[in-house]
Amino acid sequence: MRGGLVELEFIAQGLQLLHGVEHPEILTPATAHALSHAMGAGIVDPETGLFLREALELYQSIDHILRLALDGPFEPGTAPAPLKRLIGRLGGTDFADLEARLIAAEARVLDIFQTFFGVEQPSQE
């Protein structure tokens, strides 16, 4: 998904590449730590950094559950109700709430990506 985990991790890695020489404290293989250190170094403002950390935690939590529960891709229309309830609790009250939260997070992550790197991601059509 555009604005998902791949773009979020790329933001952390790209910031390390762009600013690591001046701020070696941001160099780490852990995405969450890289984002925290980038905030501490003043490279990322606190609001953006906290949002990225929260989105990372949400994305990774969903990813972990889906990897444990499924052998293939997640299809919301055919997914078992208990799995959807479990996943929904990660993002709020229910699965619909989680879907809305993910759509908003994806849009903001993509916007941050484009702001930091000045590039538009190609369409995934």
Please characterize this protein's 3D structure.
The protein is mostly helical and 125 residues long. The protein has a single domain, classed as Up-down Bundle (Four Helix Bundle (Hemerythrin (Met), subunit A)). It contains 5 helices and no strands. It has helices spanning 5-19, 31-40, 46-69, 81-91, 95-117. α1 (5-19) runs parallel beside α5 and α3 (46-69) packs across α5 (95-117). The longest helix is centred in the middle third of the chain and has 24 residues, at 46-69.
Q: What is the CATH fold-level name? A: Four Helix Bundle (Hemerythrin (Met), subunit A)
Structural shape: elongated
Q: Approximately what portion of the residues adopt beta-strand conformation?
A: under 5%
Number of domain modules: 1
Q: Could you give the count of β-strands?
A: 0
Mean pLDDT: 91
Q: Give the C-alpha Rg.
A: 16 Å
Number of helices: 5
Provide the low-confidence segments as ranges: none
N-to-C SSE series?
HHHHH
- CATH superfamily descriptor: Nucleotidyltransferases  domain 2
In the CATH scheme, the class would be: Mainly Alpha
Q: Do you know the CATH architecture?
A: Up-down Bundle
Largest sheet: none
Q: How helix-rich are the residues, as a percent range?
A: 55-70%
Distance between the termini: 11 Å
Structural class: mainly alpha
